[in-house]
Structures are given as structure tokens and as C-alpha cells.
Amino acid sequence: MAFSHAAQHPRAHGGSARGRQVSSRRVRDLLLASIRTGSIDADAPLVEEELMQMFDSSRGSVRAALGELSEAGRLVRRPRVGTRLHRKDLGIQLADFSGTNGQSVEIKVTEQRLVPTFPLVSERLDIHDDHVRLVENIFIANDEVIGLRNAYFSPRFDADPTALVGEPLTMAKTIAEFFRVTPGTASVSIGAELSDDRTSQLLGIEPGQSLLSRDVVYSTADGRPFQIVFDRFRADRVRLESDLGLSDWPDRR
């Protein structure tokens, strides 16, 4: 049996007439990942011709990618200086708020009080108090607000969160010094949303900007949930990272 194939222009497959791919999105992905991993020197100028060759991409896709990253504030383009990296993303551990490459993150408490309990917290944390503690804080890295957390937990954890302010902080340190429990697991849910007015004010951004949302339930080593948190991170400043062992994945064949 014979099959006939209609001739297609190379661009129909996402390439150019010379076989180069023309997606600026792909160039952005490869460029940012190359900078993060050190394949491209973060302090060196970015040259269009070199990027075209490195990523086998058209000049238009490289130029568009550089322009898009410049508009997003990640690159700076100046005459006689060239195009250079202006700001690197901050990698945040998937279930933590510390930087993946040793970058320090601090908090500032913006609100703390008792609030009437509600089914979500009482069911997820298996507590039956009339009230739960709410602590809201912002995350600060490189002298810039990068995120926001609302945490709910039992009033029996009565430590003062402001004691953790003003120094580099990790979730491990928070669990050890504030909750005084042995850490076990974290159940994480990731999403995205647009910033509302109050959140924008706390983060120092314009309303409607993209945010990463993260809900986490932290449990002790013996499986008792003790805190549920709702985080928001600036999508133009933060990326969430984790190393996962594929051997831990369930077999669903």
C-alpha cells in the first residue's frame, strides 16, 4: 500500500526555511535554564549570533526572546554595553521558603490573631478548638518582597513569630524553634492566580500581576498535621524547585 504526503513548508513544523526553530518561547526557556545552571556566564553579555548558534534558532526568535525578557525586567539592553542579565530568579524549595542555592530569605510579620475555626482547618489539622491562630508574613530576599504567607494552626502553639524576624529563616528552623515538633511530611498543591489589591499592596506590585500560589499541609514525623499555609509568590521573581527520585513514583502500568 502506498501513501502520499503533501509537501509542507518547513515553517509548518515550527522551523525556518533553513531548518532553525523560530519559537521565542523555546529560546527563553533554554536561555534562562542555561543561565541558572551556569552553561551561560551570568555576567557575560548575551550576543545574538552566539545564541542563534547555541540554540539552533532564527535571529528573529532570539531577538524576540531577548526583547521579551528585557520587558519583563530580567535583562537590561544598553548601547555599547550590550544585553546583560539584570536579575536572576530565586529558586525556592518546593515545600520550604529557603533559596535552593543558599540565598537567604527573611520574614516580616504583618498580622497575627485568633480567628474562629472553620471546617477546612479543623478537618485538615484534626483540631477542634473554637479558634485557630492566623499568622500572616511577607518573605523578603535581596531587600525585596517576593512573597506572602497566611498560616493557620492550633492555639497550643503559642510562640511569638516575631522572634524569627530579622535573620535568615528556613522551614526546618521554624518547625524546630516555633512549633517544637519533629518534622515529617508536607502535602503541596501548586497553582497560579492574579494579584488582588491587598496582596499587591503587601508585595509592592500592581494589581493583576501573575502570582504562584502554593498550599502546604505540614505534618509531624508520626503523621499528625500541625499547620496549613497559603503562600503567594511573585511569578516574576520566584520559581519552585524540587529533586524527586523516580523510584518513588507509584507504578501505574
From TrEMBL:
User: Which SUPFAM superfamilies does the entry mention?
Assistant: Chorismate lyase-like, Winged helix' DNA-binding domain
What are the start and end residues of every segment in region (Disordered)? Answer: 1-22
Keyword Transcription regulation among record annotations: yes
For molecular function, the Gene Ontology terms on record are: DNA binding; DNA-binding transcription factor activity
Q: Residues of the signal sequence?
A: none
Has the keyword Isomerase been applied to this entry? Answer: no
Recite the UniProt keywords alphabetically. Answer: DNA-binding, Transcription, Transcription regulation
Matching entries from Pfam families are given as: GntR, UTRA
**Superkingdom, taxonomy of origin:** Bacteria
Q: Which GO terms describe its biological process?
A: negative regulation of DNA-templated transcription
* Location of the HTH gntR-type domain: 21-88
Instruction: Report the SMART domains cross-referenced here.
Output: HTH_GNTR (SM00345), UTRA (SM00866)
Q: What is this protein called?
A: Putative GntR family transcriptional regulator
Provenance organism? Gordonia rhizosphera NBRC 16068
